[in-house]
Amino acid sequence: MTSNRQWLLKERPSGMVGPEHFSLQESALPEPDLDRGEVLIKTLYLGFDPAMRGWLIDEPSYLPPVQIGEVMRASSVGEVVSSSNPDLPPGTLIQGMAGWQEYSIAGPDSFIPPQPLPAGLTPAMALSVFGTTTLTAYFGLLDICEPQPGDTVLVSGAAGATGSAVAQIARIKGCRVIGIAGGAEKCAWLLDTCRLDAVIDYKSENIDQRLAELCPDGINVFFDNVGGDTLEAAITHMADFGRIALCGGISGYNDVEPAPGPRNLMILVQRRIKMQGFIVIDYMDRFEAAMGEIAEWVMAGEIAWREDIQHGFDNIPATFQRLFSGQNTGKQLLALAEPGA
Amino acid sequence: MTSNRQWLLKERPSGMVGPEHFSLQESALPEPDLDRGEVLIKTLYLGFDPAMRGWLIDEPSYLPPVQIGEVMRASSVGEVVSSSNPDLPPGTLIQGMAGWQEYSIAGPDSFIPPQPLPAGLTPAMALSVFGTTTLTAYFGLLDICEPQPGDTVLVSGAAGATGSAVAQIARIKGCRVIGIAGGAEKCAWLLDTCRLDAVIDYKSENIDQRLAELCPDGINVFFDNVGGDTLEAAITHMADFGRIALCGGISGYNDVEPAPGPRNLMILVQRRIKMQGFIVIDYMDRFEAAMGEIAEWVMAGEIAWREDIQHGFDNIPATFQRLFSGQNTGKQLLALAEPGA
Per the database entry, which stretches of residues form a coiled coil (chains A, B) (predicted)? Predict the structure, then answer.
């Protein structure tokens, strides 16, 4: 253990992001300032999220863009390997944003100070069902959409980490839930395990036609992870006073030229519809309370989730790409090492 | 006075609406059932609004579409000419929705029972500054956009009846107000009479470029009457947590094929923006209170308005078209007769 390997952003992608946009760098192991409470952390698991694609665009946004030559930003769980901080002894599991590298340093002055993993959580669980994707689902659905019992709730990207949590929280709240996902396997999981009321397989079915069949009285709530044609089809079938939470637009993240938006926005006027974007970090002061509620649902078996765990440092960039081809089944993770190994 | 003239919807327009879509019909004067409290009303003034274009489309909306062969729906002020109702003697001025015809009947069982004009209001004032366009401005701005003192508020269609009211209410609320309008004359009126902070003449200036200059810290509130490219440009310059009220989309009302929507909706996510459509009729139970506040502003000289009064029954369909060519300066009205004439 004398060197650190890192994936740096080599060039900004135009179109589909891939391994060619990152370069591997081997450098000296970073040295924590132990006297100032810094610790050296070995990365165990990395989390992948479609929103990371946005961090590669050189425009101001809710987080600064990743710069050329910088380590790619990513959520992580790691293990303390070097420390003189009595609160964070070696072996402590840490949640953070280590990025795509084997080792990182964090201390009390870091942007994200080192935060121990709650007892009983595996690294994979901390990054999946107990990660920010579920919090995103929680606040986007409950705060932006205010679902009422009996509402028809539509979720796009429903088999994804965020979408499947949205769908199940809506079900817990007494809504009728319809999910849109790609492929028979994902749709079967949503019906059988997540207990949705209906699913639409966008790879084999016409979304607009299926929504007409499934929602004769309209959609009260639409939680959108996809954008593009899916958003346009959903708008067509919204009920009066419907609410649309814009969480993401994965259909357009790798477009070279931005695609035209929905042609039917006047429906928002005619039917008095609210469409609102949100970012989960704005709810940080309520994370703890929300996580308590989410934990109760998970313990009660009310929220199912899946982890798609890839392996190996070399596979990091290719694993990121799985999100955009729809290959991932559940929360996309990558394991570099197991705790204590 | 033995016959009634009416403009009926002859065929549904595809593209620009014009006189050719309406047919003139002469029929017998309608006979009110005086024993049941009905009155015969002579139409004096008609009001014209871009939203009327939507009533010609054969799709369910917030009001049923006007059917082929029906009198074109329109707001009106008329005068009672035949009545045995002591509350509505001949000569009483009545607000209503008589539509494009010289005479109409209304009674206690009508969809809109006859409602006398408040004392002191001229027919033109009742349909312009004290009409639903100002109420639309009031609720759309204050309820949907919640403007705060110091906010930068952008209004499209700013020289129109609704837009100019929005701009001035925003100014009253302590906001910095920028209007978008077409032509030097309208822009000068907005600056000099309505006391806006800045204007953009979309006929001679690039909206996107001007917004970049005028709103370096972003737009907090956008009240949109226009849609299309104007909406896309405004989204580009929205500030974090901005609010967009969708009131209408006049740029697309006469499109044969719906134009593509804004390509930049992902900005709504990144900047946590709310975009919401509304219809003024949902606020009906608050009209009276709102009108009281509006009347105070008007009396105090804080809200300026303009009336564009055309004349003559034959000119009704051509007057409607003025809204879509931008020829109207202020609230579009048409006078058929004056009170007591």
Answer: none
